[in-house]
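Schema walk-through. Below, the input block comes first and the output block second. Nothing else is stored per chain. Lengths vary across the set, and this one has 375 residues.
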Amino acid sequence: MKKILLTIILYVPFIVYVYAQKGEFLIRGKIAELNTPKTIQLSGQLNYTTISLSTKTTNGEFEFKGMIEEPVEVQLIVRNEGSHTFQTDKIIFYLEPGITYLTSKNNHISASEISGPGINTLYQKIQRSLLPSKLKKDSLKAEYNALPEERQKDPKVDADFDRRDGEINKVQRSLYLDFIKNNPDSFLSLVALKEYGGHYPDYTDVAPLYESLPAAVRETPTGKAFKQQLESIVATAIGKTAPDFTQPDADGAPVKLSDFKGKYVLIDFWASWCGPCRKENKSLINAYTVFHPKGLEVLGVSLDAAAMKEWWIKAIKCDKLPWRQVSDLKTPNEAATLYGITAIPQNVLVNPDGIIIAKNLKGKDLEQKLSEIFK
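--- output ---
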């Protein structure tokens, strides 16, 4: 099965909520029966900025405060003292400016009741709506992973799982669309729109929905980033001139995309930490072995961060990748942003005139396209 994605269903049509502007957040928690001191960790991801805070409980009570630019999904985890591993006892919720209260009547943070800003009430309803679809996704993934490897490689089996996964995705996309239309003022409609668009958003479908959101939502960091992605999708559509970029290779030498002009070049966006990318490298090597002698070039663009440079270099050697590799080692990678890449693996095929002629070709589809070019 090519991919089974776990996504969020956002469907609460009768609630309309306008989120608060950026500002200070305060979390106050009380775990009633937690008598011994514990470390509580707060973590979340906000536009490439990591929220990572910790504190200790006093008589089961704890508090977090800080500044936030927009609502963000976070989790609170109770950590065992002196342990480097986390308990499974955790709670996930949405954080926004204002005061959020968590109250548990026993010693489990996962049993907490949450009150405070309005978005979290909506978020909890979202999570309840999520459950049926998530369970179907989990079940399908488990069923696939339980198959012997030879069965997983069977094209008919793979196609059947893709079909079943696609049916779940269609239901989810319908729910996302309903949520966006029924909750146009909610920040979570922007989150729903990102899920609705998926990894390869259709501009003609997604752009009007984005424009239907209020300016306050579109002007958030996430809203601006999504607009930039949509603009990049237009700029890198099939038939457009591939935007040029320069990034250093593993030795620090600058490499330009335009250096490959006059040749067919496949721009391959990947990373050392990306399992599907590493798996796709095997079929890409096969294609390169056949078509490089006929004129195909590949330019690998890694989305690894600076702290992972050694992993990137090790992955190149481990996977025995013979083509040029570059990365600015930034988060986000500037070339990936230029091409509207928010998920990997992805690739872009450019002809000798620098025109984009295909995108996201994998396996047999890539081989077929290259066979048509290099007859």
